[in-house]
Amino acid sequence: QVKLVESGGGLVQAGGSLRLSCAASGRIFSLSTYAMGWFRQAPGKEREFVATISWNGGSTYYADSVKGRFTISRDNAKNTVYLQMNSLKPEDTAVYYCACSRYRATTTRRSEYDYWGQGTQVTVSS
User: What are phi and psi of 86, to 5 degrees?
Assistant: First the structure.
């Protein structure tokens, strides 16, 4: 069974930074051949795409709302994906989820992600 565990969330003031991590575990499972993504869900809203990275880290893509402020990266040796979040805004407040795609290339479609973490809360105060 594949398990994704997010960490690094918390409460931060507007303008601050946080780094989220997503570690994968499971029997004979490696993230290194799959694209990964981060999504978020604010109260009363649908889960939305934030960022995605290809299997080897060579390609990334971001939602317009976070472009220039967030950076997605991965360390395949550690089976871990990161989301560095800078210049945080109150509207970034949400539960953040990492997900593992069934493909190697980047994708923004929720339906193309097969495994999901439980989420980590990020709260940005004004």
Answer: -115, 165
Confidence of residue 64 (pLDDT cuts 50, 70, 90): very high
Q: How far is CA 119 from the centre of its chain?
A: 9
Q: CB–CB of 95/28 below 8 Å? A: no
28: pLDDT strictly greater than 70: no
Q: Note whether 54 and 105 are within 8 A (CB).
A: yes
Give the chain's end-to-end CA distance (angstroms, integer). 40
d(CA 41, CA 100): 17
The contacts of residue 5 (CB under 8 Å, 6+ apart) are 22, 23, 24, 25, 117, 118
